[in-house]
């Protein structure tokens, strides 16, 4: 009898753990974004997540992680500590198409003075895509800002190139999704955790 009660307790505990693990993710087009991750020994929380569309096609799911919830672009760009943008590919894409989308987003949301200041880092970033022939459905790219180190880009857990030292470079990346002319306005709203947009992806 006591053993049966113990077994029931274990089963109940397992269900609770399973439920809490399930509750700790946000589903976007079948991609599960964890509600919290660790970057540079710092807990970051999912600010918002959504889908990047091109015409009617889903290109990737993206999630923004910050130390504290932010709902405006200036607050995100000014937020202290590490940050992360996670991209999960929803279709195969050539490095040329993917790189063009990134660089176009930077061009449309960065003023001339900042472009001039960051030219060498932008050039190196453009070369980064040439090292990956193709991005496959399911590939995961993380773009991390680590104070004192710089921007670190990783693909499927493998670091790509050396860090980009300037915070202005990371903010230029963020403006691809959050700038005045974002690559996808629906994704911008979702990453800023605007309720309507985020709910529409569930």
UniProtKB/TrEMBL annotation:
<dbReference type="InterPro" id="IPR016088">
    <property type="entry name" value="Chalcone_isomerase_3-sand"/>
</dbReference>
<dbReference type="InterPro" id="IPR036298">
    <property type="entry name" value="Chalcone_isomerase_sf"/>
</dbReference>
<feature type="domain" description="Chalcone isomerase">
    <location>
        <begin position="26"/>
        <end position="192"/>
    </location>
</feature>
<keyword id="KW-0732">Signal</keyword>
<feature type="signal peptide">
    <location>
        <begin position="1"/>
        <end position="23"/>
    </location>
</feature>
<keyword id="KW-0413">Isomerase</keyword>
<protein>
    <submittedName>
        <fullName>Chalcone isomerase family protein</fullName>
    </submittedName>
</protein>
<dbReference type="GO" id="GO:0016872">
    <property type="term" value="F:intramolecular lyase activity"/>
</dbReference>
<dbReference type="Pfam" id="PF16036">
    <property type="entry name" value="Chalcone_3"/>
</dbReference>
<dbReference type="InterPro" id="IPR016087">
    <property type="entry name" value="Chalcone_isomerase"/>
</dbReference>
């Amino acid at each position: 009898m006591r053993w049966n009660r113990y077994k029931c307790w274990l089963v109940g505990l397992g269900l609770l753990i399973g439920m809490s693990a399930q509750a700790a993710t946000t589903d976007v087009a079948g991609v599960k974004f964890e509600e919290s991750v660790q970057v540079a020994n710092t807990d970051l929380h999912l600010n918002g997540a959504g889908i990047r569309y091109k015409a009617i096609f889903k290109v990737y799911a993206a999630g923004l992680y910050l130390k504290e919830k932010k709902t405006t672009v200036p607050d995100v760009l000014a937020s202290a500590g590490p940050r992360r943008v996670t991209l999960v590919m929803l279709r195969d894409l050539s490095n040329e198409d993917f790189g063009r989308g990134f660089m176009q987003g930077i061009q449309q949301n960065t003023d001339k003075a900042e472009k001039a200041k960051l030219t060498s880092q932008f050039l190196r970033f453009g070369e980064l895509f040439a090292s990956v022939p193709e991005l496959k459905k399911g590939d995961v790219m993380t773009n991390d800002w680590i104070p004192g180190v710089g921007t670190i880009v990783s693909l499927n857990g493998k670091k790509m190139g050396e860090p980009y030292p300037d915070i202005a470079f990371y903010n230029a990346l963020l403006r691809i999704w959050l700038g005045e002319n974002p690559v996808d306005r629906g994704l911008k709203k979702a990453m800023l955790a605007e309720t309507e947009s985020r709910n529409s992806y569930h």
